[in-house]
Write a structure and sequence with these properties.
Chain lengths: ~180, ~190
């Protein structure tokens, strides 16, 4: 069975999450994955649900939650296709884990458009992948933290220099460090 | 050097907050005066527990801390001012959530040592001093030492999902469903 993606934006209030999740439960759906955060003072929820009614019917039910804007779309079923480039045995031995190595990038500086685009371009150029991202503002400060996967063959020192120069052009400082990922 | 009003705390982005600070002579009268200013500024920012000289506009290696009012403090040396402090031992790494007076509105999860030893000099006499700290005092001192190296806690956040806004409880305007003929409202840029 396919999944439905439910996006909800609403004024932050204590009843919002129980109201939205209550609608989904009464519709017979199961919440498979969900994320909620506050952006600009608004509660923003993204959920993947399975089961229950059609996207159109669920859209109508969620729309009845007061004070929210929402969207519900059906997602096609997907198999085991990978977004990772195919790697030969030789490349695997050279580069290690084909998912790449985990890093965390922080960039902070004055609020300025283009920082994320510039950083994203540098990461993509070396075959890296941004797997999670938070961008926040605190006063005049613009802070971005990204989880990255960088292929093992990448010259990380060169990448750091490129990111530092790219962000410096936009008035931002960066720190780039291996992620703590201890799976034991 | 000492003014009537405590110096204001700089907020990011500011170049002094991302610039390594310089070592100073702990017996220099100007450093003694700055230490008094730093302590005076710290007293105005409570319940905050520490300040570093770059935060009040002087890029020298001087920090102040006082966790005596913190409910979760264990070790507590009272008001501490250290010149040229350096971390000489650290153990018991733990995830913590921290914020900073110079980064208002944001907090983040970092990994800090829960037990540390810091050596430095006392302002005025220049006497060497060793401070062993744990829990909140250890976190506070590590945070201040980072300021002396031009680092913010943002530079130590463990992952993207560990950057958090400070919840202010401010009500945002109510959302209204756009009419089909109108584009959706866009706030900000």
């Amino acid at each position: 069975m396919g999944l439905l993606a439910v996006a909800v934006v609403g004024t932050d209030r204590s009843a919002l999450i129980p109201e939205v999740s209550g609608v989904l439960a009464r519709a017979g759906t199961e919440i498979c994955e969900a994320s909620m955060t506050l952006l600009g003072g608004y509660a923003v929820m993204m959920l993947l649900v399975s089961g229950g009614p059609s996207a159109e019917e669920l859209r109508g039910r969620v729309a009845l939650v007061p004070g929210v804007l929402s969207a519900v779309v059906g997602l096609p079923e997907h198999g085991s296709d990978s977004v990772l480039p195919a790697a030969s045995q030789e490349e695997f031995e050279l580069s290690g884990d084909p998912r790449g190595l985990p890093y965390v990038l922080t960039a902070h500086g004055p609020a300025r458009s283009g920082v994320l685009a510039a950083v994203g371009e540098v990461i993509a150029e070396v075959g890296g992948h941004i797997t999670a991202l938070s961008v926040r503002r605190g006063g005049r400060l613009h802070a971005m933290v990204a989880d990255l996967r960088i292929p093992g063959y990448v010259d990380v020192a060169h990448l750091m220099r490129t990111l530092t120069a790219t962000c410096a052009d936009l008035g931002s400082e960066i720190s780039f460090r291996p992620a703590r990922e201890e799976i034991v | 050097m000492t003014g009537d009003a405590p110096r204001a705390v700089l907020t990011a982005p500011h170049p002094l907050l991302t610039t390594p600070a310089e070592p100073v002579d702990a017996t220099d009268p100007r450093v003694v005066a700055l230490a008094a200013e730093l302590l005076a500024a710290l007293r105005t920012t409570r319940p905050s527990t520490g300040l570093a000289a770059p935060q009040i506009g002087t890029a020298v290696r001087l920090i102040a801390a006082d966790v005596s009012l913190h409910p979760h403090a264990r070790s507590c040396a009272g008001e501490v001012v250290l010149v040229n402090p350096r971390l000489v031992a650290a153990s018991g790494w733990r995830a913590v959530r921290e914020g900073c007076l110079s980064v208002p509105g944001l907090t983040g999860e970092t990994v800090r040592a829960s037990e540390i030893t810091v050596r430095g000099e006392l302002p005025g006499s220049g006497d060497a001093v060793t401070l062993r700290a744990d829990a909140v005092e250890a976190l506070c001192l590590q945070h201040q030492l980072d300021h002396l190296d031009g680092l913010l806690f943002l530079d130590r956040i463990v992952e993207a999902s560990a950057l958090h806004p400070v919840w202010q409880g401010l009500a945002a305007p109510a959302l209204t469903r756009p009419r089909p003929s109108q584009p959706a409202p866009i706030r900000g840029s």
